[in-house]
Structure formats: C-alpha cells, structure tokens
Amino acid sequence: MLQPLPGTEIADFDTPVLVVDIDAVQRNIEKMAAIARQAGVALRPHAKTHKSPIFARRQVVAGAVGVCCQKVGEAEVMAAGGVTDILVTNEIIGRVKLARLAGLARIVQIRTVADDAEAVAWLGKAARSAGVTIGVLVDCDLGHARTGLADPRAAAELGKTIALTDGLRFDGLQAYHGSIQHTEGWQARKAAADAANARLQGFRSAFAEARLACAIVSGAGTGTFAFQPAAAGYTEWQCGSYLFMDKEYRDAKGEDGGPYRVFEHALTVLASVVSVAGAEHCVVDAGYKSMSVDGGDPEVQGLPGWTFGFAGDEHGRLRHTAKDGAARPKLGDKVHLVPGHGDTTINLHDDYYVVSGGRLVGVWPVAARGRVR
Fold first, then answer.
1. Which residue, 124, 129, 186, 248, has fewest beta-carbon neighbours within 10 Å?
2. How far apart are CA 267 and CA 20, in angstroms?
C-alpha cells in the first residue's frame, strides 16, 4: 500500500486511518509518569492498548519499569522491539505457549500470573526445560469474577507452592480489577476501588501470615489509579489507555462531575465524507471494520452538533442533532472520530499515521495487531 511521505498534511491522507497526535501522546506519557513518581508507585503500562514497541520504549524512557502484555504473542513483539521487562497479566496454559514464554525468559525479564497449582506445575516444568527462571504473581480476584483466586488463604497457599517450585520465583500479587475502570461517576468509581482495596488487604494479611514477602503488588488502571495508591498496598500500576484516551474513559466522569480530562485525546480514526445525497445526513467511509462497537459510538471531533451512527461494515452516518452547531460537512471533507474503545479499535488497523502540527511524522506499525495467542 502506498504510504504518504513525512510532511504530508492530514487533509491528504487516504482514509480510513488511525491518526495519532504524537505531541499529545508525549504529554500524556510524561504526565502519567510524573503522577506515578509523586505517588511513589512504579508504572508498568499495559501494551495491549498500543501494541507497539515504539510507544512502549517512549514510556520506559519516561520512567516506566517495563510493560504489561495480555498475550505471549504481544510479549514476543515487545521483546523483539527492545522492551526488557515484561509482565504477562494472563494465565498461560498449554505446552506451546509455555515453551514460548520460557523462551522469552532467556532474553528478557519475564513474569506471569497464576491461580492454580496444576498450572504452576506446568509453568515450572517449562521453565526448567528451558533452563530459565520465571517470576510469578498470584492472581487475586478483587471482585471482577474473571480469573484469580477469591480466597486469600488459598492464594497464600498457591504462593507457597510457587516459592517451592524449581524454575519459578514468587514475586507477589496481581490485584487488578478491570470491571470497575469505567464505573460512571467519580465517587461511584472511588467506592468501587475502595471495596477492591479492602479485599486486597485480606490478601496481603494472608500472605504476611504465610511469611511470604510480596515484592510486587500490581494493579490499578487508567480509571482507578487515583484511588489505588501505595498506601492501599500497590507497588505498581498497570494503566494503559491513558496513552491515547478514548470516549469511554472520558465519559466515566472526572472529579468535578464533568468529563474525565486528566489526559488528552491523542488518537482518532480519520474518515472522509463520501456521500451527501441524504437530506438529513452525510456518510463517511468508516464503519464496523474501522472502529469497534463495544465502547459505544465514536464522537465526531470538532463538529459540534453532529453525531455518528454506524451504517454498515464500511460506512458511518453523520447526523445534525442540535439546533445550532457546525455547518454540514462537504463531500471529500475529512472527519476525526474519537473511538468509544481505543484498544479494540487499534487492533483493526495495520498502522498509525503519526502527526505533529497537522503533518505526518511517520507511519508506525501496530506491530502486535492480531497477536491473540
């Protein structure tokens, strides 16, 4: 596919395409790094958001201790791209995946999580076969009811098992609660995080009674880091979406009751108006195959009064829903759309078109796109 040269204006981009404002990204990176430093917590951003070693290295340069990955395939891409400290925040099951994970431990610092003694035995066998040591965190369920042990004493027993398994190193706890990240309303989200923190104290007490030192307690996210500080027991944050921000996080509300604007929107899907034949709407060339739907409809940026609705695989419908607002876009106009959910939208695209001052800096690959194994 023919790509534009550096310096090309956004108006000349072929569409639909992911556009990243690198200046806003860098401000977000530096702001989160500063917040973590002030809070006395290490930052380990989740790379499942950007899926790019280029962005990961920028985060590390700004002070991150490494990255999180959700899948071994993502970790392989990060390691190949120069990231040297990786936590795979998912249970790894299966001979092939375990061998790949152990292979990574030969070249980078690798940790993963576990919630089952049999899985720990398999992990230990893979580590010994590869002649490596893999750090393991006990995955604790703080209320998400997805993976992780809900009983603190059972979690502590698993910690003992990890510590006694050759090839493994017990490193602490994973205490991430994903389902509260978008809880709407600052106070409601704080209450949900406080409840999770209270559950964490039960886990920490059980591990202390078992005489297991937890060097790492990893958790929190873009929606909850403000409520899950070092004082609550966390040693590192797994925030990821702060890098680009999306509509879903913004709409979760900030402390003042308005939109959550701690970080800037830095990523949009750029679309072109391809039809103005409809009397009440116009159509752009971005639909379900350009933006995910799990976070709701995207927002039309810079066009007050206009809303987006999906109109098929390759089409979106813009409607004017306010009495005032911006003028009707013209045929060929470019429209920026802020995704409802950034992570799953990014995974639909091969490349980022990285811009500064309205002009192209470069085309960067979404290198771990589709790495679901």
1. 129
2. 5
- In a domain, residue 205? The reply is yes
Give the SS3 label for residue 181: coil
> Based on the domain organization, do 278 and 329 belong to the same domain?
yes
Residue 167, amino acid: G
Cα(369)–Cα(97) distance, integer angstroms:
18
d(C-alpha 145, C-alpha 271), whole Å: 38
- From the list 186, 22, 250, 50, the residue with the least C-alpha distance to 30 is 22
How many residues belong to the chain? 373
Co-location of 238 and 277 in the same domain = no
How far, in Å, CA of 123 to CA of 137, rounded?
A: 12
Residue ranges in the chain assigned as alpha helix (H): 22-39, 53-61, 72-80, 95-104, 117-130, 152-163, 186-209, 247-250, 342-346
pLDDT at 39: 96
- Give me the pLDDT at residue 1, please: 72
Long-range CB contact pairs, 357-363, < 8 A, 24+: 357/23, 358/9, 358/10, 359/6, 359/7, 359/8, 359/9, 359/10, 360/4, 360/5, 360/6, 360/7, 360/8, 360/9, 360/10, 360/13, 361/6, 361/22, 362/6, 363/3, 363/4
Identify the pLDDT of residue 322.
Answer: 78
Q: Which residue range is the domain that position 337 belongs to?
A: 267-365
C-alpha–C-alpha distance, residues 264 and 208, integer Å: 40
- Paired strand residues for 284: 273, 316
Q: Count structural domains, the chain.
A: 2
- Of 245, 276, 301, the domain-final residue: 245
Question: Would you tell me how many other CB atoms lie within 10 Å of the CB of residue 45?
Answer: 30
* Alpha-carbon span 278 to 82, nearest angstrom: 50
Tokens 């400290």 correspond to 85
Burial call 277-291: b when 16+ CB within 10 Å, e when fewer = eeeebbbbbbbeebb
Residue written as token pair 């001979």: 95
pLDDT of residue 325: 81
List per-block mean pLDDT (blocks of 10 residues) for the chain, which spans 373 residues: 91 98 98 97 98 98 98 98 98 98 98 98 98 98 97 98 98 97 97 98 98 98 97 98 97 94 97 95 98 96 96 97 86 98 98 98 98 97
